[in-house]
Design brief:
Mean pLDDT: 91
CATH topology of the largest domain: D-amino Acid Aminotransferase, Chain A, domain 1
Helix content: 25-40%
Order of helices and strands: EHEEHHHEHHHEHHEEHEEEHEHEEHH
Structural class: alpha+beta
CATH architecture of the largest domain: 2-Layer Sandwich
CATH superfamily of the largest domain: ATP-grasp fold, B domain
Largest sheet: 5 strands, antiparallel
Number of domains: 3
Number of helices: 14
Radius of gyration: 20 Å
Length: 353
């Protein structure tokens, strides 16, 4: 029986380029171990930081080393970026492992959809809504899912005349108070996020976030436990056990996420059974609200003093290293890493039909 050719697509133009390489290493390794070794053959495809698609030796070397390509072309044109069509279509199913913009925001999903080749994960709609925090929260609100208060802001309001900006800050202070979190709407891994406790910090954070994205969201701060749930499936998704993240920093920022020892993960989280059940149900509802597929991690705030549960966000392409929360949650739920990637590939085929 011929093996299924899986194109593992990684790297990309976002600030999460290195994280993508490490996730791809873990996925490619799992697809070539144990029972998967007889089922799949992996073709690594590396997108450089300037957007050039690399097949063959460069892609294989990058995947093996875990290091981004050091030297790139100075002048890159559109014709340099995309590969030959035959290279793209000589794949049975794609496994996109591209975190952040141009990877989990619907853009690569649109290209793969046009090629009519199956791929793992959310389609254009699910990826786009899951990436944009304003669109995501709008979908969650429509589904009746509880969230902390927030204010949507545009770059034009921030970089406006001296009369408009103070009124914007007044509106945010009145609606949310302090502390609050200022976030670019379309970046992952906590890039560009700031916790603010004063007018001066709010103004600086808004200006910084506007440099990353034209859409910004400001959320009310809440004293809560941060818990996460993994979702797996398509039209009938299932939820994993719950995991909890504890850390000493102000919030779960980029350094805390990707520096060993900065955060403590507890799996399963020590929660009342009823709270666990509610979070699992809400995770599936959030997955369906944005029309996700295959894979997602859903993050929550649990206010222990009141029993309130607030949905924070969904990540339709979470980190996928051996120590990432998503595969660890499924490991604790009885699905090994190798079984998990196998199921995701099968869900990709199912979705394409």
């Amino acid at each position: 029986m011929a093996k299924t050719r899986v194109g593992v697509l990684f790297g990309g133009c976002s600030g999460e380029h290195e994280v993508s390489i490490h996730s791809a290493q873990a996925i490619a390794g799992a697809l070539t171990r144990g029972a998967n070794q007889e089922k799949y053959t992996v073709t690594p495809v590396y997108i450089t930081k300037t957007g050039v698609w690399q097949f063959g030796e460069i892609a294989a070397q990058t995947l093996q080393s875990g290091e981004a390509l050091a030297v790139e072309m100075d002048d890159v044109t559109a014709s340099d970026r995309l590969p030959d069509r035959q290279q793209l279509t000589n794949i049975d199913i794609w496994f996109p492992v591209l975190h952040g913009p141009n990877g989990e925001d619907g853009t690569i999903q649109g290209l793969l959809s046009l090629l009519q080749i199956p791929f793992v994960g959310a389609g254009v709609l699910g990826a786009a809504v899951g990436m944009d925090k304003i669109a995501m929260k709008t979908a969650f609100a429509q589904a009746g899912l509880p969230q902390v208060n927030y204010v949507a802001v545009s770059r034009a309001e921030v970089w406006s005349n001296p009369c408009v900006f103070p009124k914007l800050c007044d509106r945010i202070e009145e609606a949310l108070g302090y502390p609050a979190f200022v976030k670019p709407a379309n970046l992952g891994s906590s890039v560009g996020i700031a916790k603010v406790r004063s007018r001066q910090e709010l103004e600086a954070a808004l200006d910084s976030a506007a440099s990353y994205d034209r859409r910004i969201i400001v959320e009310a701060g809440v004293q809560a436990r941060e818990v996460e749930c993994a979702v797996l499936g398509n039209d009938v998704p299932k939820a994993s056990v719950i995991g909890e993240i504890a850390f000493e920093s102000d919030f779960y920022d980029y350094e805390t996420k990707y520096t060993a020892g900065q955060a403590e993960l507890t799996i399963p989280a020590q929660l009342p059974p009823e709270v666990t059940r509610q979070i699992q149900e809400m995770a599936v509802e959030a997955f369906q609200a944005v029309d996700a597929a295959g894979i997602s991690r859903v993050d929550f705030f649990y206010v222990e003093s009141t029993g309130d549960i607030f949905l924070n966000e969904i990540n339709t392409l979470p980190g996928f290293t051996q120590t990432s929360m998503y595969p660890m949650l499924w490991q604790a739920s009885g699905i090994t890493f190798e079984e998990l990637v196998d199921q995701l590939v099968q869900f990709g085929f199912e979705r394409s039909q």
